[in-house]
Amino acid sequence: MRIGRLIGQAVLAIAGFLAVFPLLWTALNSLKNNVDIITRVPRVVFTPTLANISYILGRDSVLTGLYNSVVACGCAVLVGVVLGLPAAYAVARYPNRWAGDIQFFVLSLRFLPPVAVAIPLMVIWLQIGLYDTLPALIVTYSLLTISVIMWLAIPAFQAVPKEIEEAAFVDGYGAYSVFWRIALPVAARSLAGAVAFSFVLVWNEFLIALMLSSSNAKTLPIVASELSQQGMNVPWGILNASVVLLSLPPLLFLGVLSGFLNSVFRQKKT
Amino acid sequence: MRRRSSLPVTFVVPTLAILLVLSMVPTLYAIVIALQNRELSSASYSWVWFSNFIDLFLDRRFLNAVWVSVKWEVVTVVATMTVAIGLGVLMFEVASPRLRNVYCLLFIIPVLLPRVSAAFVWKFAYHPLYGIATYPYRLLTGGLIFDPLSKPATALFAVASVDVWQWGLFFAVIVLKLLETLPPQPIEAARLDHARRWQIHAYVTLPMLKAPLISLMFVKMIESLRSFDLIYVMTRGGPGVATETLDMYAFSQGFIESGKVSYASAMAVLMMIATVITFTMLWKRVQA
Q1: Residue A92: which of A170, A149, A168, A142 has the closest Cα?
Q2: What pLDDT digit, counting tens, does each position of A157-168 carry?
Q3: Is the distance from CB of A150 to CB of B286 less than 8 angstroms?
Q4: Which pLDDT band, with edges at 50, 70 and 90, does B3 fall under?
Q5: Crossing angle of helices A134-158/B7-34, nearest 10°?
Q6: ipTM of the assembly?
Q7: Which domains, from first to last, does chain A contain?
Q8: Does B280 touch chain A (CB under 8 A)?
Q9: Is A195:A123 a contact under the CB 8 Å cutoff?
Q10: Model confidence at A33, in pLDDT bands (50, 70, 90)?
Q11: Domain map of chain B by residue range?
């Protein structure tokens, strides 16, 4: 039994190491000169350089990509919040015979293969003249954010104790102010998790952005993937730095999202 | 009071209308394009009805892509669930509450990364000469070269390993949280009956969690359909067509090689029909 436990501990430790080490190694490589990366034996001791990072932050294409990503994801998440949260609340609190169908419809949007959506949208945006613009990307991403936020917010609203809302009704609050002043603040923590999740999802999105942009509206993942195609002379350090830049924003939400996970499963227990 | 309010209508109807428009317009238009012969290079087109679909079934590269997609789906789903259940049970058994929190945080990190980032991180790591993941092999064999991404036999598994790195570790956290929600009495009872640790999990806890675990698998099946980013960055469908899944092939037909938008769309429509039917049926069974 003792040995079994020890092996178990070791396996877990290895898994934990594997979870973060590749990323840490990438971060380390972004601080290296090319000579220190292209070595047969990995080098841990080296003279660090900020050249890669300053190169990345000085490139117009990267800055445009960053700007596009922030605007497209920010706006799409905003649309998702404005349209998704109220709808989720209504489905959660005013159940009717379509509630199940609505939930399934929202989920089924996730079944659609991204290519199947991206090809026709590309043709449509080309015809309207909005191809390769941020509005086209925002509208397309809104489909994603609205459905994901709705899907995650329905259980969050259902978890708000009904008694609090009933008490507010008795105190003379209308239906809308119950939503604003009671349900939203009480469910705020879980809702923040849902919103953060939708942001990470669209920030990480690649295929749709690749198909709907050719030069002006490229998002950061597209720009980063293009850096790798600069011929035979791969600028490894620069590439690593761009990966780090691309990965930082989702990691900022690590705390919110793990809190969200915890709250989801604590509800199930009770 | 609740009944008479206008809230449900004003909150639900606009959102659903927008969702319907945003999803149905591209879906229907995908079908329309698939029945035509549009190409990126020319503006003119005509209706060719089902000839794209007939061509597809005679296209051996398409059949290969179907096969690769099925392989990808099976490999990633099975590996992810195995890793998730294995690590989840291990954390439940041997990790102290504080360690559990640490592991949970670590295991969530990979899934938060953009797929493009994860793909790059591992593409470097698998580099035959300078990669950190191939370094142990070079060290042990005295400098022999192992290039998993350029061998047809290993490429799919190398890419799948990145997917499992992201999702398997994340699902392990969820499996742990599910185990923690179980009531302790049945586990105690099994322990009193001298059941071994693995027997407790194989016969008591995991069967109790059957429904959530199946839902988890369902989620993974849906997410596995989104393999494009990983494959695009790591192998571009290569070597040859060894990792060319349906979305990769549709993309290269439509945009890289020939610009046959209609042909690509026909492929996308077939994918859409297959996934919608499969997942709707699965979902109804899971719910029942």
Answers
A1: A149
A2: 988 888 888 888
A3: no
A4: low
A5: 130
A6: 0.85
A7: 60-269 (1.10.3720.10)
A8: yes
A9: no
A10: confident
A11: 46-287
Check if CATH label 1.10.3720.10 holds for domain B46-287: yes
Mutation site for A-interface testing, chosen from B94, B106, B117, B191 by largest number of A Cβ within 10 Å = B117
Q: Are A210 and A222 in contact (CB under 8 A)?
A: yes
Q: For B42, phi and psi rounded to 5 degrees?
A: -125, 150
Output the pLDDT for position B1: 46
Residues 6+ apart with CB under 8 A from A16: B102, B103, B106, B107
Nearest chain B residue (CA) to A259 = B105
Compute CA distances B107 → A12, A152, B164, B168, whole Å.
10, 21, 12, 9
Q: Looking at chain A, which residue has its C-alpha nearest residue B18?
A: A143
* Interface test mutation site (partner B, options A115, A177, A269, max chain B beta carbons within 10 A): A115
CA B136 to chain centroid: 29
Residue numbers in B near A90 (CB within 8 A): 7-8, 11-12
Strand partners, B42: B39
Given a cut of 60, is residue A233 above it in pLDDT? yes
Run of H or E including B265 = helix B261-287
Average pLDDT, chain A: 86
pLDDT at A43 over 70: yes
The span from the CA of A227 to the CA of A62, in Å, is 10
Rg (CA), chain B: 24
Residues B80-98 have a mean pLDDT of 92
Residue B20 distance to chain A (closest CA, Å): 9
Distance CA B184, CA A62 (A): 53
Q: Cβ distance B129 to B41 under 8 Å?
A: no
Q: Which residue has the tokens 């499969």?
A: B278
> How much is the pLDDT for A75?
95
- A235 near B CB under 8 A: no
pLDDT at B185 over 90: no
Residue of A nearest to B88 (CA): A12
Up-side HSE of residue A44: CA atoms within 13 Å toward CB? 2
Report cis status (omega within 30 of 0) of the bond before A155: no
Q: Which of A256-265, B49-58, B113-122 has the lowest mean pLDDT?
A: A256-265
